[in-house]
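During the no-cost extension, the postdoctoral fellow (Dr. R.K.) reprocessed legacy sequence entries with the updated structure-token encoder. One reprocessed record is reproduced below for audit purposes.
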Amino acid sequence: MRLHLKPQRVARALAVFGAMAILPAYALPVLRCQLEEGGEVRIVETLQGSNPYDFKAIDLGSRFRFRAVVIGNANAIEYIKLYAYYRKEKISVLMHQVTYHAPRVPEAGATAELTGLVTLYAPPLGRQLQYSCDLAGA
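Re-encoded structure tokens follow.
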């Protein structure tokens, strides 16, 4: 099996792992979202960053895209924004956006529910996307 890696992703991963190596005994919290569309379940984990444009949307089936943005520093999370898009052909239309200002980060090893279960329906056929996100202390 041949593995194809984009240079930008390799550089970002090395930067993240390099930053983790120099962090004190505590690490950054993780936003963990469970996404379900068309019977397929995906778990997406997002670490915090400082530039909202570094966070890319992911495709879910042929009808939806999802994007999680976690902005903060080593001391706290400033905000979390979650976006869901409906896809039609090559166009993505924003159908849902929510912001969580300064969410409380749980203790190391603990997890706190952030969103509850969110259900979205795409026009015109009513395809369904469900997601829920938790914030895990590191």
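The longest strand covers residues 77-88. Helices lie at 7-22. The remaining legacy entries will be reprocessed before the final report is submitted.
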